[in-house]
Amino acid sequence: MAHPLRPGPKFKSKETNMPHIGKLIRTYINKHHIAKSAIARKMDRNRATVERLVKRPSIQLAILWEISEILQYNFIADVAAQLPNTYGNNVPDPTLPLQEELQTLREENKILKAQLDAFKEVLRKS
pTM of this prediction? Predict the structure, then answer.
């Protein structure tokens, strides 16, 4: 599959369904009754700056990271969750250990069923 940025001569941005980052933050702080002034103090900025941030559709990743750390909430994961799951990423599959355990248990179950059948056969012959 060709890379989405090639082979065109120039990169042209098209409109996307990018989530409104300020709205995500604003919704969270309103839901949890967090004062913007408290966030501003932790960011070492004034309240007006935080007011502007929560009105902007996009903000720098470093600022979003800082706000995520202050509020102990992963806004970056919320944004990533809105991308199609067909897009690649480097996030390890959290279900992999469970899938491996399931496979081991299935194999063990198969062995136990065979042993049970063998015991039933022995009992039938006796």
Answer: 0.64
